[in-house]
Amino acid sequence: IVDASLSMQYNGATPFARAQQATEKLLDRFDTTCAVNVILAGGSPASSLDAPALSALPLKRDLLSAAPTLERADLDAAMAEAVRELEAFPNHARSIYLVSDFQRTNWSAVKFSTVPEDIKLVFLPVGDPAAANVAVTDVTVRPRTPVLSETVEVVCTVANYGGLAVDVPVK
Q1: What's the predicted TM-score (pTM) here?
Q2: 50 and 59 in contact (C-beta within 8 Å)?
Q3: Contact in structure between 8 and 1 (CB atoms under 8 Å)
């Protein structure tokens, strides 16, 4: 599963490019006896193939032509799709590789418990650990429906998911 969410475009698509490279290297590790597939995790999951196959060549082609989306990844749906595809291989060693920047807002609510215990999860981080990660997480206007000439208060909640203190200008 390759994270194709908006955060993978951070700083000019660099995390997504690293994800493409890491996934291509991963595909090169498997021989022709291993069934593989690539699922892009965007607003909805997009599998390269209908089911895992023994050839990685079409997967590499799809991977290299892929781009990150402008949406939040539905990672639970992507994992459900991977589990569904792996159901065809009950007597084999099964793994789901997760290639992502692992941004907290995308990953904090993922339900890993829905993945059967016999399927191994492998996490491949491609994000920049030193990258700033500040986000406006909520905006509230008080009163909700102001009238002309009424004083309005705008309350913004800003979250800092990075490791350094950040000043956030207000305009």
Answers
A1: 0.76
A2: no
A3: no
